[in-house]
User: Fold this.
Amino acid sequence: STLFNPKRLLVIMAQESTTTPSWLPLESNPEVLNSFVHRLGVPPTHGFCDVWGLDAELLAMLPQPCLAMCLLFPCTKISGPRRSELRSSPRPAPDPTLFFAQQHDECGNACGTLACMHAVVNAAKSGAYSLSPGSVLADFERDTNAMSFYDRGRALVTCTAMHEESNNTARSGETEGAGTEDNQDQHFISFVSVNGHLYELDGRTVDEEGKAFPVDHGPTTQETFAADVARVIKEEFMARDPESVNFNVTALVRLE
Assistant:
C-alpha cells in the first residue's frame, strides 16, 4: 500500500526578496487550501480533500468526479533529473484551452499558489462550477486569457490581490518550519484533465529557452482520472525516491 507522511507538510511559497514581497507558506491540508481557494472565488460546493493512498481501494473512497489532484513531493532526487528528461522528450502541442502559468523567480517559490490556481481554474473551465464574478481568480483568468504561459506567469508576479489572499490564508495556519523549496526539499504541482488529456502542471518545468511547458500524459477519462494520476505519481515520482514517505496528495472534488 502507499504510505504518506502523517505529519502535515508545508507548501513552500517563497523566500525573502529585496525586490518583491515574500509569499508566506501555506499548509498542505484541505482546510487551509479550501480557505484559500474559496477566498479566490471557488464556490463553497467544491474544494480539496485528502487522498490517503494511491492504491485502488483508497482511490475508490474519493468523491466523484475527481476534478484535479495536487502533489507535494520531496524534490531533491526528483525534480532536476526528471525535468532534464522532460526537456529532451517530444512534446505535443498543449490543448489551447489549458490554463497554465510559468512560475517566475520574482514570484518566489510560490508553488502552492500555482498548484491551487491551476487545479481550480481548469476545473471551472471544464464546466464543473463557475468562479464568483468579480473574484480574484475570475478576474485573473479573464485578464490573462489571451496570454502565453510565460506572460501569464509575469502577470501573477504583479497580482497584488492574489499575493494578499495567499498570505492572509497562510497567517491563519501553522507555518512553522517554512523556508525555501531547496532547503525544505518540497515542491507542489497539480494534475488536471483537459478535453480528455491528463496534464501535469509545474510552472518550474521549462524548456531550453526558459519557457515553462505542461506535460501531457496522454488520454484519460472522468472514470480513470484518479487512477491515471496515481500511476504517474508512483512511476515517475515515488519510484525516484522510494525510501521517502514525504509525499502528500489532495484531490479537488465536490464537497458533501
